[in-house]
Write the structure tokens for this entry.
Amino acid sequence: MKSTLPKLAVPVGIVGIVLLLVVPVPAPLLDVLIILNILLALVILLTTLFVKKPLDFSVFPSLLLVATLFRLGLNVASTRLVLGDGCAGDVIAAFGHVAVSGSIIIGSVIFLILVVIQFVVVTKGAERVAEVGARFTLDAMPGKQMAIDADLNAGLITDEVAKQRRADVSAEADFYGAMDGASKFVKGDAIAGIIIIIINLVGGIAIGALQNGMAIGDALSHYGLLTIGDGLTTQIPALLMAVSTGMIVTRSGADTEMGAQAASQLGQSRIALAVAGTAAIGMGFIPGMPIVAFLLIGGALLVVAHRLGVAAKAEEARAALAEQQAAVVAPTDTTDDLLEQMRVHALEILLAPDLVDMVGGASDDLLGRVKALRRKIAVDLGIVVPPVRTRDSVDLPPATYSIRIAGVEAGRGQAPARSVLALGDALAGLPGPATVEPVFGLAGKWGPAEMRHSAEMTGATVIDRVSVLVTHLSSIIADNAARLLTREDVRVLTEGVKQVNAPAVDDLVPTMLSLAELQRVLQGLLSERIPINDLARICEGLTLRAKVSTDPEGLVEAARASLGPALTAQYLDGRVLRVIMIDPTLEQSMLEGLRPSDQGTQILLDGHRVEQVLGSLREAVQSVEAQGLSAVLVCAPALRPAIHRLVSAQQNGLPVLSYQEATAAGSTIETVGVVRATDSIVA
């Protein structure tokens, strides 16, 4: 019952409005309805003042329509009583005799003033604001949707938050669109009020003089006062609703109540209050002016200005005292401070002083993007990236950033302030210095942010400077993931696996392998950009291998084999795996030249033969890349670790798979190159 009554209130009210149009209403009930109409308008006005943002009162357009219909229904009911019975209850009579001193002329003037205020001032302005607000809201809607999608793709927000933001954007557009139409209700209500009062006045005089035998003057006095009273009882609530409409469509700025917002902003300048108070006191001394009233108002303003000044000075004194106490109490260099300065951070971003504006409070600044990047790498590679310390450094040249791993610089680039990076072939006509994109080595130009549109028109790809830095950081983290994986990280990851598959870890660590040995295996996978997300499956594969041997190289190969098709899936183009083969004769010679060493198996090669093999591989890779494709190098399983070590120095990032790994996914193998050498390469 408790939840049903609010749902029935509006339908029952609308049915009651319809009944007002066709069913005569007794005068006492009309009094109650008129009072209810005035109070409803007052409650709506106060609600618009206390809501923190317009969408908190999203039912306002519909409520405005219902309130307008209610007033028109009361007009019809009161007109029926005034013309039919010559009276319309105590409320209308009171407005006709007391509120306007019983004078039809005074009443007419007051009514016309209310209509002018409502129609010419409030309603006209609210209608224009509603039109502009609706247009601007609809124009901004695609940009807001794109911003939400960008935040979602970057990992800054969850799906639920994105769904809620999209709903808010849609609701905002619907609200201002509805307000654009609802403002027409207010305008029409003002026009209807003028027409209704004219009709009632003419009808009342005709009925009094022709039907009731009254003199023209008496009929005008009697029916005129009732008509004016009737008009005032509906025009005052109409004015309140018009003001409510203006309030709701002109709200902007912070999500705070209007009263608190107005008080904080009007009181932020005590000088303005002091000047206004002084002016008021000065005006009081003009001959004929009520000096007492001016002195009271001016004095009040000066008192408020003085109190604001005292409060501001007290706040400044407290802040200064706090700084002094902090300077006195703060120790110069504690042991913890020294230890913190000695600490080597796993990941650091150093910014030149002119780049510190990249670190702000917005969700799309550098810190927010780095946070999203850490989440993405955790999903892609299965490792927890350590927190990235960001600080400025006066040692760096202007517009320069440096990315460090364990205190050693791993990469450096530029990100000039208020600039964007344009990448493409047709950059000659664009302003700015030429540069090279740090990750892919593409030619580009740094130019002012205003050139974005012109650069895009030439077909160039335009990237903001935060994206340049974050992309560079992502590449460095992926290249150095093995270095970033600590023993503590391995412990945390294995504890997570235990929660869902305890035997996979318990059978391996520490029974067969120590945590350090497992770390070395995982680092071997990460060094070739193999994700370790499926750690449970990796542990199961290592358990089988460790029963036979704990050779690090063999353990890495066993871990790779345990991943099965998942290992190869990242290199597929649809269902096609493009491969670079090794000439069979060359491959057989390599197998014969395999030798064990402390660093794993090695192929005994002289310098000349190494250049032959790497040169042939380089040509094959360049041929594939020229076609816009990517490929992997495949070889015999026994050669795979040694081949990877051989080629990684020159072709860093080129995946090396065994024949079994290449065929594990059941994909189509397409040979796009062959590595050859003319002579025997065994040293």
